[in-house]
Amino acid sequence: MFSGSIVALITPFNADDEVDYQSLKNLVEFHVDAGTSAIVAVGTTGESATLTVEEHVKVVGKIVEFADGRIPVIAGTGANATHEAVTFSRLLNDSGIAGCLSVTPYYNKPTQEGMYQHFVEIAKVSAVPIILYNVPGRTGVDMHPETVARLSKIDNIVALKDATGDLSRVEIHRKLCGDDFVLLSGDDATGLDFVKLGGQGVISVTNNLAAKDMADMFRLADEGNYAEAEVINERLMGLHNGLFVESSPIPVKWAAQQLHLIENSALRLPMTPLSDAGQEVVNAALDQAGIR
């Protein structure tokens, strides 16, 4: 379930700043048709920080409804306040999700012990498997491998999304956490190398646009056919990098509108539209990828 090419799904808005549920439904169909392994609903790329609690729960529920059992849905449930992350887990326990993705507490910079205790409290209430999410570039805090190893001993903490881009950690996490613990990359540019080193897949921004290519690439990697996987990866490398030319999901939403995957590339403040310079970068990456 937690392997292969998993999409960190964008949350489309309309011109009135409301969630565009028709476009959301279309996105789910796009990923079912493309062979995407699973959907992460309302993670960082889904603008979880700017949705209300009610919107957050409703969007996850709608994605589960639209998926209709054809593709697993993983809910973003992270927060920097432990009680809030616990609340999200409780609210979504019976929503039909296959698991949850919970980011390290951002901004308040807890110690390693604080992060450990944070996830212990979430694990106590979660009825679904938990994927830890370490992305120090956005949270300001790095969960050390030793802390991940401690948490991996808890039965319903089953995986890590590692967005550090530090490939040396794959071997370290594998040794510390054991063969049954799932390791997922959160960095598209190094995702294939991550899998070569022993990871099971990627939670991807690029997948929002190049879903079939990403599914094919990680299927080939799973089969050990790295040469063909590398051909796809090289073609997509411009997207892997270009989609972060400005803070995500600014570039990927603009690109999704260009590809007619969503009606509107609207974002909620403090996110602002992609600059002209950013558009040039993303346009070049789309041309290189050959997906339009």
TrEMBL record:
This is 4-hydroxy-tetrahydrodipicolinate synthase. The active site is at Y133, K161. Keywords: Amino-acid biosynthesis, Cytoplasm, Diaminopimelate biosynthesis, Lyase, Lysine biosynthesis, Schiff base. The gene is dapA. Pyruvate binds at T45, I203. The keyword Transferase does not apply. SUPFAM superfamilies: Aldolase (SSF51569). It is found in: Cytoplasm.
